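Q: Structure tokens for this one, please.
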Amino acid sequence: MSPIELFSLPFMQRALIAALLTGLAAPAIGTFLVQRRLALMGDGIGHVAVTGIALGLLTGASPVWTAVLVAVLGALLIELIRERGQTNGDVALALLFYGGLAGGIFLSGLGGQSAASLNTYLFGSLTTMSVSDVIATMVLATAVIALCLGLAPQLFAVAQDQEFARVAGLRVRAYNVLVAVLAAVSVTVAMRTVGLLLVSALMVVPVATSQQLTRSFRATIAAAMALGVLASVGGLVVATFASYKATVAPGPTIVLLALACYAVAWPIGIWTRHRARLREPFPTGEPDAHEACAEHPHDHGPGCGHLAVPHDDHVDYVHDGHRHAAHGSHYDEH
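A: Here is the predicted structure, written as tokens:
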């Protein structure tokens, strides 16, 4: 069977649908994580989700939904620790890194599960997704995309400047919690595509690539989602064609393709920024004009401490809070 005919099979069609939705959802929420300098949050949540996977395997429940539950709880814990300032954000992530991964391996051992049972979630397994897995991916990914795009102005304001957002009347804590929850959901959506250990790459690398080529937030999130689809779907196609000559997994191929896009965009971004500086090396605009005033706080002279400022004939001006009386072409001490 040729690679083209292979995509007519149901399991490959399910893989394409999952790759498409993951490529859209992961960079959408990743844009706000990068804006908040929480690029490694996806890694921390991914390690916590390992415990959720092992819990599902141990209890016989769906690993996808147990991973969602545990990942959301882990994300809320990260946000709580970060907000309360009980410890540094990177320390909180490190604690969850180690605790989540160790807890998952421990629980899988209690349930008599082998390491192979976790590998499909740790490193991804697009081609083994069932119909129920695809349905869960569709529901979760659609929710993430809808909320990220629908609340993009509010989420951007909170991510950019929390004090400004608070003064503007936004509920900063609620939006921070929402970002954490959406990040947790995105991790579980992408775990069958690229795996929990590589999920952060699909959330961050397309965003970093789009930032090299765009100059506005809307263009950045749109380009990041487009690049995410290109990497996820393209990685699946490349892995499918390459599997005829070697054993190539889709997950690492997707991440390597995303990194290749960044490698191409990086010098282009440097060149375009350099060209922009050459076109407009200095800010443009007219200097501020003097404003007329009817009062004169004090007389200007050699001892007033102000630099000399030229004025036109018979016009009174205010400069730095002081009125200057101009008579002919002369300089007031200012």
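A few notes: Residues 250-279 form the longest helix (30 residues). Residues 23 and 230 are 8 Å apart (CA to CA).
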